[in-house]
Amino acid sequence: MQSELPDDLKRCVEFHGHLCPGVVIGYCAAKLGMRELSARRAGDEELIAIVENDTCAVDAIQVLTGCTFGKGNLFFRDHGKMVFTFATRANGRSLRLCLRPARPPGMDEMPEDQRRGRQIEYLLSRDPSEFFDVRRDALTCLPSPARIRDSIPCESCGEMVMSTRLRERGQENVCIPCDKNDQKERVPV
């Protein structure tokens, strides 16, 4: 099956490590989002992606859109939803895609070992717009562009931490884990 895949999906599979329905869902979401926004793969931060899950789909979104945590144009919202929002900084247009059930008819009656392959075939045989509820202009304002922040040692553990992530604990500036560990120690057992 993999030899028949489009080259851009092959790149997603190579990055992710295997072909699965999740990667194909992310592939479909990225293709639809970029098509609807007339966007190209981001070299910097001109395109942003907001993902509401941490599934296989996000790997395909990174590969196709060029949105990454390192560049500051991939944002994770831990909502557990197969929802993907794409936006372009140049014109502020945005698009929110929410996955609808995308299972081929009769899939539940198939043997387990055939379901994944059949779902992948089904997703790739149709236009991605068939699987997503689309909401245009979904964002009223875009996330701020990435800024480089100073790193400062945590006064408790000594590890370097982004200055904007330090927490005040008494007279010390500490990292989030040290602050949380201190709070745990204060909780009566």
What does this structure look like?
The protein has 189 residues and is of the alpha+beta class. It contains five helices and nine strands. It has helices spanning 7-16, 21-37, 57-65, 112-124, 176-186; strands at 47-51, 74-76, 83-88, 94-99, 132-136, 151-153, 160-162, 167-169, 172-174. It starts with 6 loop residues before the first helix and ends with a helix. 29% of the residues are buried.
Low-confidence stretches: 185-189
Work out the count of structural domains: 2
Name the beta content range. 15-25%
Number of strands: 9
SSE succession: HHEHEEEHEEEEEH
DSSP summary: helix tally? 5
The CATH class of the largest domain is identified as Alpha Beta
Specify the CATH architecture of the largest domain: 2-Layer Sandwich
Distance between the termini: 56 Å
Helix content: 25-40%
Structural class: alpha+beta
**Could you give a short account of the major beta sheet?**
5 strands, mixed
On the 0 to 100 scale, the average pLDDT is 91
